[in-house]
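Attaching the record inline, Q. Sequence:
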Amino acid sequence: MEWQRDEYTISTDRARLDMELVVSYLQNEAYWAKGRAREVILRSIEHSENFGVYRSVPKGGSVQVGLARVVTDYATFAYVCDVFIVPTERGKGLGKWLIECMLAHPGLQGLRWWYLRTRDAHGLYKQFGFRALQEPERSMERPGNL
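Structure, as predicted:
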């Protein structure tokens, strides 16, 4: 799938991903993924629906400026994670557009639940119908490395 807006493109083509950018950003910049092993990042990309955000550059081509992953069974649920826009491209509505494209993806229609975790982007996600857990007593988590 591909969406176009001005000089930006959002694509689910995994082959387009700049894995060096993705690994570097997640390992060094993302509070939720700092220090995550490269092998883990690569495996997570391999088993997700990925939405890369790209900006066209002069003389053709593009550079990646963002990413979001959706972990899903394509039938009942989706978990949104590893969402980022590089700092130089923030403030242009790309995060909002990224969420719009994820929610519009034909393979992700009719899902019963979308989940995510965020420390600081509640306002963004609320615009798209995300909310705090209504029945937290029905949700559980198991931290890794017990």
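The chain has a mean pLDDT of 95. Residues 2-138 form a domain with the Aminopeptidase fold (CATH 3.40.630.30).

More tomorrow.
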